[in-house]
Amino acid sequence: MLKNIDPALNADVLHALKSMGHGDTLVISDTNFPSDAIARKTTLGTLLRIDNVSAARAVEAVLSVLPLDTPLQPSAGRMEVMGAPDEVLPVQQEVQAVIDRAEGKSAPMYGIERFKFYEEAKKAYCVITTGETRFYGCFLFTKGVIPPKT
């Protein structure tokens, strides 16, 4: 156990988050996402796991240490519901609330069409799969920077 580190973050996830650079992306996915197949095509090349928690809980843990690139661009995306791209499901609403708390302001997610999401996920630094069983619990985040103390 470490001080001030969310216990949901295991060593492999922490190493990947630390290794990512500004502008790198990561996927946090539900249990239905083809996580292993997609993860093999990412920079890291292997699947990471935060098991037995919801997508929102996993996002909360990740955003406790990962800065988002929100000042420069929208940096949190959600997989769109097929046939209803503007619909925001409860799992996505929960993650949006986590993002807003982490950022201390409203930082709306942008929608990504399902098959485009798969293609963007292959370009990510890594994929973290969760225990989320609800559909469309898949998210893409862009890492930002931590400014120097002045």
From TrEMBL:
Native organism taxonomy: Bacteria, Pseudomonadati, Pseudomonadota, Alphaproteobacteria, Hyphomicrobiales
Protein keywords: Isomerase, Plasmid
Organism field: Ensifer adhaerens (Sinorhizobium morelense)
InterPro entries the record matches: RbsD-like_sf, RbsD/FucU_mutarotase, RbsD_FucU
Family annotation (PANTHER family): FUCOSE MUTAROTASE (PTHR31690:SF4)
Protein name: RbsD/FucU family protein
One Pfam short name: RbsD_FucU
Catalytic activity from the UniProt record: alpha-L-fucose = beta-L-fucose; beta-D-ribopyranose = beta-D-ribofuranose
